[in-house]
Amino acid sequence: MNIVAIANQKGGVGKTTTAINLSTCLASLGKARVLLIDLDPQANVTSGLGFTPTPNTSLYEVLIGGERLADRVIPTRFDNLSLIPSDMDLAGAEIELAQAEDHLTRLREVLSQLRVAAMYDFVFIDCPPSLGVLMTSALAAADELLIPLQCEFFGLEGLAKIVHVQDQVRRSGANPDGRIEGIVMTMYDGRTNLSRQVVEQVREHFPDEVYQTVIRRSVRLGEAPSFGQAIIEYDPASSGSVDYRSLAQEFLTRHR
Ligand SMILES: Nc1ncnc2c1ncn2[C@@H]1O[C@H](COP(=O)(O)OP(=O)(O)O)[C@@H](O)[C@H]1O
Ligand SMILES: [Mg+2]
After folding, report:
1. Which protein residue's CA is at the shortest distance from atom 17 of ligand 1?
2. Which fold has domain 2-254?
3. Most buried one in 31, 128, 154, 159, CB count within 10 A?
């Protein structure tokens, strides 16, 4: 089992879109059992998959109150996809965890139960857009870091920052084997030189990490969450469906 944090401290770069659509594409390929954890108090994965964020359903009480992790897992309409939803109350964990001595490793300990149970092949964590406790504890808990990066000039600046933070977490001893699994270029616009240049530059610096699959800018990808649907449900023939299916295939190939 691999725990994969989908993270970038910048907001609006495609973390949640990638979390929803990579998970649902992997599940629908039928080759992996997937658990998706919504760790963002904004609960965009939860609502984007058609669930209503509800108090007392998130990881909050597991992290703070000692509730059982297994009780927070809910099935989805995808056969091989389960979800741990989020709700605004998870924002409280950010503050309360910060005061705990084991704040960096508590999530890691909680999720270690999943390794014992061995019910999933991949566990994805959709992280909030900040360098707060929730995000850093996800970096401490995850075997792998998957970074969505917007094809824009300022995308690159953010990349240096998160790579640095992951390095700090690794050197703190909290997660000595944590590694960068990949970088997914998002919102690619083939008509602009900028998109091409940014992809080229990132490939130069991270030749092994950058996925061959690039996620194109697509209006349909932006619309799907307001219908509570993954892109393969909302518009199976759209470029967004093509791109995220391709990403899922490439992800599987990398993990073979
Ligand atoms: N490839 C894309 N093309 C068009 N819109 C996108 C694409 N990826 C994400 N979006 C939209 O951009 C916004 C930010 O994406 P989101 O995945 O929520 O980012 P994050 O989780 O990093 O904040 C959302 O409205 C989303 O629907
Ligand atoms: Mg998000």
Report:
1. 14
2. Rossmann fold (3.40.50)
3. 128
